[in-house]
Amino acid sequence: MPSRFDLGPKPRLGYVDSLIDRAAAFRADKGAMERHADDPKSGYYVVGGELIVTRRHGEHGEPLFARADAEALGEPHERVFLGFCGGLAQFGLAIAADVAEALKARDDLLVTDLRSIAVQGLVDSVHLAPLAEAKALLLWHARHRFCSVCGSASRVADGGWRRDCPACGAQHFPRTDPCVIMLAVKGERCLLGRSPRFGAGMWSCLAGFVEPGESVEDAVRRETMEEAGVVCGQVAYFRSQPWPFPMSLMIGCHAEALTDSITMDESELDGARWFERGEVAAMLARRHPDGLYTPPPSAIAHHIIRAFVDGEAPGF
Ligand SMILES: [Zn+2]
Q1: What burial class does residue 185 get, using C-beta atoms within 10 Å of its C-beta: 0-12 exposed, 13-18 middle, 19+ buried?
Q2: pLDDT in the model for residue 1
Q3: Which of 122, 150, 271, 316 suits a disulfide with 256, CB 3.0-4.6 Å?
């Protein structure tokens, strides 16, 4: 059904549609990996904690460096193979967070966090997916230096896609934490909440981690009940988004609300209420009379809400 609201073309979601061939079968070939790592045509994304280092071109940044230039920015802590893009190998390189922070002082560099890069469009959008891949994987290494079975120091293997324990032989693989993010819908209304961390006026979908032994559908129903006291029935998958803060996968859903009275969890939210379709259309377009707004198009919440406004969410 065509939208009754003039919101223009659909914007692009951040961190998705990667152009990288991850070439997983290639990771174990150490010799070839080193040759590609040394190839001056190979590209390196440089990550220091939450910060991404780019070369400044006016207000924008070019995030790919040649190996020598990347390593000159700071002592490399870890290198991971991201895959091939256009036939050229790409790697992620971690430097210390305080070294990256100090690089902010250089006029030739643009050093900022990945959220700002995505929201403000500071790099060409094709770089967002590999930057998310590099940041999530490098952060996993930074937080998993020891074997979780026996406590010994573990070693990087498979181009950065595994850590092996030399003491007990356990193999450890990078984690992705699944997180549901959902819009409960009841007729012409949808349920939005406000986290105390949000800027004044921003409202978004409810969200929470999927727990062990739980389906996506059950997690959607549980989180909506816990945070807002609303009972949900059917759940429909919408789309997903890697969310490298630090290493989540956002699983976007619409949910059929069966009740409408709200009991808000005040330890998680400082607002939860129903919004009419026309009101959220104004919030997406940043034309709400009270200045209320939704998250930016780089975040999946924007697209989940937009699908409801456009009449593309299931009617259940
Ligand atoms: Zn071990």
Answers
A1: buried
A2: 47
A3: 316
The DSSP code for 142 is: H
pTM of this prediction? 0.94
Residues with CB under 5 A from ligand 1 (ion): 147, 149-150, 152, 165, 167-168, 170
Tell me the helix, strand and coil percentages in the chain, rounded to 5: 25, 30, 40
Mapped onto helix, strand or coil, the DSSP state of residue 42 is: coil
Query: For residues 150 and 165, is the Cβ–Cβ distance under 8 A?
Result: yes
Q: For the chain, state the CA radius of gyration.
A: 22
> What distance in angstroms lies between residue 156's CA and the mean position of ligand 1's atoms?
13
Ligand 1 centre to CA of 237 (Å) is 38
Sign of the dihedral through C-alpha 301, 238, 126, 22: positive
Distances (CA, A) of 10 to 203, 224, 302: 20, 27, 10
46-93 per-position pLDDT tens digit: 999 999 999 999 889 999 999 999 999 999 999 999 999 999 999 999
pLDDT at 6: 80
How many Cβ atoms sit within 10 Å of the Cβ of residue 211? Answer: 11
Distance CA 224, CA 18 (A): 31
| 8-state DSSP, 312 | -
pLDDT of residue 4: 74
